[in-house]
Amino acid sequence: MSESSDGLRIFLVENHEDTLTFLKRYLEQCGHQVSVATTMESALSTLPSPPPDVFISDIGLPDGDGWELLRKARAICTPRFSIAMSGYSGRVEHEKSREAGYDHHLVKPFLPNDLDSLLEEARRRVGKN
Fold it and tell me: To which H or E segment does residue 20 belong?
């Protein structure tokens, strides 16, 4: 599939196989270029260069958490827009995501429209309107 001119370069970190497969396919069908990782270690070793337009990570990873991952990833490259995903929707989780540097905390399960709205915001931020 060819990348559309307004497609975003997205780096997706998710350890749940079905969720990863669905999100990757959905994002590609929307015209985005998607790279994936399933653990914190694999994400840190495969971060794309140049930095992705959008960094999306699950908070619960088998070898760490998405908060620590974003902090470490920023030492390697700084994504222009970042989205945390979690099944936890409490104030504490939202604050931890904000403190780690995420632009948004998306609560699972979410509808495609919820993600689309955030990607529209990312598109504006990176100048791909």
Answer: helix 17-29
Complete DSSP assignment for 58-112: ESEETTEEHHHHHHHHHHH---SEEEEEES--SHHHHHHHHHHT-SEEEESS--H
What whole-number distance in Å separates Cα of residue 66 and Cα of residue 72? 10
Count of all residues that appear for the chain in the document: 129
Domain ranges of the chain: 9-126
Q: Encode pLDDT of 85-104 as tens digits.
A: 999 989 999 999 999 999 99
Q: Which residues of the chain have pLDDT under 50?
A: 1-4
What pLDDT, on the 0 to 100 scale, is given for residue 1? 33
Rg of the chain over all Cα atoms, to the nearest angstrom: 13
In whole angstroms, what is the distance from residue 84 CA to residue 55 CA?
8
Annotation: CATH topology of 9-126: Rossmann fold (3.40.50)
